[in-house]
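Re: beginner question about structure tokens

> Can someone show what the tokenized structure looks like for a real chain? I only ever see the sequence side.

Sure, here's an example I had lying around. Input first:
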Amino acid sequence: MKRFMNFLLVSAMVLGLGLTSSTAIFAEDSNSTTPPPTKEVPEGFVSLFDGKTLEGWDGDSKFWSVEDGCITGRSSEGNPVPYSTYIVWKGNPVKDFTLLVDFCVPGEGNSGIEYRAWKDDTRDHGLNGYQADISPGDIMGIFYGEALGEIIAWRGESAKFDVDGNKKIEKFGDAAEIGKSINMHGWNTYRVEARGNKFTEYINDVKTTELVDERPDSPKEGIFGLQIHPGPPMFFQFKNIFLKTY
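And the corresponding structure tokens:
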């Protein structure tokens, strides 16, 4: 009996180690920088990126290319970004939509998905508009606005601009808890939804921020862009970019 109990104890320890090991492997894989497989286009969506070329996009080739089947933004000490610049989708302006984008920032970097955007001719490949922010840490998942109020809402916040431009903030979640669902240096999926003057952003199906914008001059339609921000050398990738319009 004692020998049998020892066997059970050893077996439990082995199983426990196996579970712990599996958990560690899963955690490590969740931050893998290996690009995900090419996904099937969801029903009702169209693909904005063919996985091979930058056809349909316009960006400075010094910073944008296709690597590993991904739209890739890259700067270096010898090739710095002088100001916030974008690779711009060349399609027609869009009103209401759902946008899905897989993204990864393996190291440090500052990027974002610009939407309901318009061209800023004061900058080469410049855009203004709403932005689903991408930068590992506290900035990841915030609601930004180029020429629309800068940081509009932090992660876990719902913002509202009234017709006079006054902003009200309400919290719907804890920023740190929401951050636990994000692979800060691995692959994630952004989902951005625009319906009239309401905008909701999700990462990995977890809501990060939202905005209701009643300002009369808020953009009612716009284009899309992917940002590379000035600063230290950075590298990030985007894949499986799908759009559904309403």
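Each token stands for a local structural state, so reading them left to right follows the chain. The two ends are 69 Å apart (CA to CA).
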